[in-house]
Amino acid sequence: MANFGYARVSTDGQSLDNQLAELEAAGCMRVFREKVSGAKTERAVVAKTIARLEPGDVLVVDLTADPDERLGSVAGLLGSVPSLAFYSHVEADVRDRAQAAGVDLVVPRSRMAREGPALVDRLLAARH
């Protein structure tokens, strides 16, 4: 059982650093990185990421910045794997959009920081 993160930015001029730090703090043992325009519909890295996940693994997505682009990257692929996302408190509507996109569990960033392992356990128990 492991947590895998997915980090994405649209251009080479943007940095993945904040997402990588957040996902590492969320307990992700590996973070798959992608730099691809939001206009492109093919997401090779996210498809490979999900294909690598095994039973008991969880995909973690940071929605604290550009949530709609990140949700667009993973939407349609999420039903097959347990997924957990976290968002900034100031954007509470992100939770509803993430759930509509198929994310299993969506929590505020502060809750993820406090309860990360327990949230993963809860998610996995609910999926079995």
How are the SSEs ordered, and which strands pair?
Layout: E1 3-9, H1 17-25, E2 30-35, H2 44-52, E3 58-62, H3 67-74, E4 83-87, H4 93-101, E5 105-108, H5 109-127
Parallel strand pairs: 1-2, 1-3, 3-4, 4-5
The counted number of beta strands is 5
Q: Could you name the ranges where pLDDT drops below 50 across 5 or more consecutive residues?
A: none
What is the typical, i.e. mean, pLDDT?
A: 82
Task: Name the helicity range.
Answer: 40-55%
Secondary-structure element pattern, one letter each: EHEHEHEHEH
Oligomerization: single chain
Distance between the termini: 14 Å
The CATH homologous superfamily is named: Response regulator
Overall CATH class: Alpha Beta
Mind telling me which CATH architecture this is? Answer: 3-Layer(aba) Sandwich
The gross shape turns out to be globular
User: What is the CATH fold-level name?
Assistant: Rossmann fold
Q: Strands of the biggest beta sheet: in what spatial order?
A: 2-1-3-4-5
Radius of gyration: 13 Å
Largest sheet: 5 strands, parallel
- The structural domain count equals 1
Determine the structural class based on helices, strands and strand pairing: alpha/beta
Structure description:
With 128 residues, this protein is an alpha/beta fold. It has one domain: Response regulator (Rossmann fold, 3-Layer(aba) Sandwich), CATH 3.40.50.2300. Helices cover 42% and strands 21% of the residues. The chain contains five helices and five strands. A five-stranded parallel sheet has the order 2-1-3-4-5, sandwiched between helices. It is globular and about 40 Å long. The model has no long low-confidence stretch (mean pLDDT 82).
